[in-house]
Design brief:
The complex is a heterodimer of chains A (357) and B (317).
Chain A: E1 3-16, E2 19-32, E3 36-40, H1 47-54, E4 63-72, E5 75-76, H2 82-88, E6 93-96, H3 110-122, H4 126-139, H5 145-148, H6 158-170, E7 176-180, H7 188-205, E8 208-213, H8 216-222, E9 225-230, E10 233-239, H9 240-245, H10 250-257, E11 308-309, E12 315-316, H11 332-341, H12 346-352
Parallel strand pairs in A: 3-8, 3-9, 6-7, 7-8
Antiparallel strand pairs in A: 1-2, 1-4, 4-5, 9-10, 10-12, 11-12
Helix pairs in contact in A: 3-4, 3-6, 4-6, 6-7
Chain B: E1 6-18, E2 24-36, E3 40-44, H1 51-59, E4 66-71, E5 74-75, H2 82-91, E6 92-95, H3 109-119, H4 126-139, H5 156-168, E7 174-178, H6 186-202, E8 206-211, H7 214-220, E9 223-228, E10 231-237, H8 238-243, H9 248-256, H10 262-267, H11 285-288, E11 293-297, E12 300-303, H12 309-315
Parallel strand pairs in B: 3-8, 3-9, 6-7, 7-8
Antiparallel strand pairs in B: 1-2, 1-4, 4-5, 9-10, 10-12, 11-12
Classes of the chains: A alpha/beta (357), B alpha/beta (317).
Chain lengths: 357, 317
């Protein structure tokens, strides 16, 4: 499949009074046409900063893209002037924000907010803009769209507001849609509706989606490919099946293990990842996850691991994949999942033989 | 479970809020349930269903509109004298949702935790007070050096540990935890849930655990109550609820949770609960009222009308 967006060695720093916070430290990934790439991580891992950097929405100062390139249709977005970027933003690349309560303008009608982009990027006015707005409202499943045009955000529920935010993002048929935790503020039943809507829209319009979330359940539901982020770096990339059924990085194991599942035995403790993520004012030497990693080796504290390829689509940055690394046994939850769903994979087979290499 | 003694009995609890111009929000509308000694009762539901209001009404942060709350057989809302209230406040504590808003930013962590100890006169000397604070900090996985610091110096997970230490300081029997983990990251949620479980075992505490995250709540609860529009629609043993949910709303809620499992997600069928919203204008109150709970099998209560009873019995497996 054709690559539509390519991020290379993206580095973002924030200059604060306390010092320079290295929020994103050399992130590289490709987004292919029509796919959904999920970026997963905890708060502070840099996933939102990455998405804002692609949109060039990092406030400068204090923030700054210090290194790297973001290639979109043969142009490096990092190098565009503010004016040129305004033409890309909202038209080619659009964003859905987390909180529908704060991302809409409370003093503007629904119609005005949706038509803003149409007017600016496509020059649509009057009846044309109105027609397109009604189309969009229908597309995102808003009942009785005609009546909503003159309403204000406060007259709508949280789920409806998020649909409006999505309609605004879709207004100019963007090629890339960045959804930054679009369902975190919503109830589970509303979340399910919004996720279904996004999948439906993707099928109809073929837009590529970067889906930022911390919820692995949502990832399993939405993603074609997954990139796991920790302390400002990507640590594992793969297809959704590879990440869930054949994960290789101990942090991915920890994340997957700490999610409760209905089949779990309640008398056991949940396997939690001990400790807290590092402070990115002073990023640690070596593998940033090492202090929380029960599988950490001496080298993890000294030298940062490179990405080791596992398959064409799967790679992980952990020294455990080095040819000289010892055999390790991943947590029970990971083993169980692999054996249940992918008993024939090399991953599952090597687990049965007594450990991973 | 039936043999155990009741620690808390909630009888027909109502909490209505006047929102002006004669309009009333019936946040909790006739809720009845019991909590047994040493158990964890989970209370789940979507935002606005009245689960937090229930917790706040029980502990007396709101004056209940109607109904009774009996704690160890005594009506807690009828207590008037300062002394009686003090005694009750010591036995029931609360852990709040937002670890950022629930700690006074101008107090040191030591003072925050010791506030209850001071109010109830639980320590005779300054040394004893401080030692208690240090013990509590260590119990929740922090260190005694943390006592002299301020809340802003801590992460969300650590702050929630401080909130737990504060609740434990007066050695309560019963703790109401109002969404204690929903503001935390996944890996930290597991840590806090494990801590709360361990404390519950070690100190034989009783919890009312309020949450919207159904998968986490199952981990900690013995029984789970599902709330919808100010009413309980189902109350059941935790495992049984997931195995055999009966009420249509419970089913829709359970079917909406995405699980960290792509194969499951590809085949998940969502059940949609389509009930006309209660209390809508122009409807008689009969139409919109949610029927009372009935016991369909031992320990499994479902909200239903007489007419629905047979249909539910047929669903029993």
């Amino acid at each position: 499949m054709e690559t539509i967006l390519s991020v290379r060695d993206l580095t973002v720093a924030f200059h604060t009074y306390a010092g320079t916070v290295q929020a994103v430290r050399g992130v590289s990934f490709d987004l292919k046409k029509g796919e959904t790439l999920a970026i997963v991580g905890e708060s502070g891992s840099g996933k939102s900063v990455t998405s804002k950097a692609i949109m060039r929405l990092i406030p400068n100062p204090p923030g700054e893209i210090t290194k790297g390139e973001i290639m979109f249709e043969g142009r490096d977005l990092v190098k565009l002037s503010d004016k040129e970027m305004q033409k890309v933003r909202g038209r080619d690349i659009a964003m859905i924000f987390q909180d529908p309560m704060t991302s809409l303008n409370p003093t503007m009608t629904i119609y005005k907010q949706i038509a803003e982009g149409l007017k600016r990027h496509q020059g649509l006015t009057g009846d044309d803009a109105k027609k397109r707005t009604l189309e969009l409202l229908t597309l995102v499943g808003i009942p009785n769209p005609e009546a909503r045009l003159k309403q204000y955000p406060h007259q709508l529920s949280g789920g409806m507001r998020q649909r409006i935010v999505i309609a605004i993002a879709l207004a100019c048929n963007p090629k890339v849609l960045i959804a930054d935790e679009p369902t975190t503020a919503l109830d589970v039943t509303i979340q399910a509706q919004i996720l279904e809507l996004l999948k439906d829209i993707q099928q109809k319009t073929g837009t590529a989606i970067i889906f930022i979330t911390h919820d692995l359940g949502v990832v399993a539901n939405m993603a074609d490919r997954v990139a796991v982020m920790y302390a400002g770096k990507l640590i594992e990339k793969g297809t959704v099946d590879e990440i869930f059924y054949e994960p290789r990085h101990p942090y991915t194991w920890g994340l997957l293990g700490s999610m409760p599942r209905p089949s779990d035995d309640r008398s056991q403790d949940l396997p939690a990842i001990p400790g807290t993520p590092p402070n990115l004012l002073h990023p640690p030497v070596g593998d940033a996850f090492a202090p929380r990693n029960q599988y950490a080796m001496k080298i993890d504290f000294e030298k940062e691991p490179p990405f080791f390829p596992i398959t064409d689509t799967h790679e992980a940055a952990t020294w455990l994949l080095h040819p000289q690394a010892p055999y390790v046994e991943p947590p029970v939850a990971i083993r169980d999942l692999a054996l249940k769903y992918r008993p024939d994979s090399t991953f599952a087979k090597s687990l049965l033989k007594g450990g991973l290499k | 479970m039936e043999k155990r003694s009741k620690l808390l009995e909630v009888k027909n609890l109502k909490q209505h809020f006047n929102i002006g111009r004669g309009r009333v929000v019936k946040a909790v509308d006739g809720l009845s349930f019991d909590i047994y000694e040493g158990e964890v009762l989970g209370l789940v539901g979507e935002s606005g269903c009245g689960k937090s209001t229930t917790g706040r009404s029980i502990i007396g942060l709101y004056d209940a509109t109607d109904g009774e709350v009996l704690f160890k057989g005594e009506n807690v809302h009828a207590k008037k004298s300062r002394k009686e209230k003090l005694k009750f406040n010591r036995s029931m504590q609360m852990i709040f949702q937002d670890p950022y808003a629930s700690l006074n930013p101008r107090m040191t962590v030591g003072d925050i935790i010791a506030e209850g100890i001071d109010i109830h006169g639980l320590a005779t000397s300054k040394d004893e007070r401080n030692n208690r604070v240090y013990d509590l900090l260590e119990t929740v996985g922090l260190t005694k050096e943390h006592a002299s610091r301020y809340p802003h110096e801590f992460s969300g997970g650590q702050r929630q540990r401080i909130g737990i230490a504060r609740a434990l300081a007066v050695e309560p029997d019963f703790i109401i935890a109002d969404e204690p983990i929903s503001a935390l990251d996944v890996s930290i949620q597991a840590q806090v849930v494990n801590l709360m479980k361990q404390l519950q075992r070690d100190r034989s505490l009783t919890y009312l655990f309020i949450a919207h995250d159904l998968s986490m709540v199952k981990y900690i609860s013995d029984r789970i109550g599902v709330m919808y529009q100010g009413h309980l629609v189902e109350l059941c043993d935790a495992d049984r609820l997931y195995e055999n949910p009966m009420h249509a709303y419970t089913k829709s809620l359970l079917s909406a949770i995405p699980l960290p499992d792509p194969e499951h997600e590809r085949t998940r069928k969502r059940i949609i609960y389509d009930r006309p919203t209660g209390g809508a204008v122009g409807k008689s109150s009969e139409d919109s009222s949610i029927p009372p709970l009935r016991e369909i099998e031992p320990g499994h209560f479902v909200s239903m009308t007489d007419a629905e009873l047979e249909a539910y019995q047929a669903q029993l497996v």
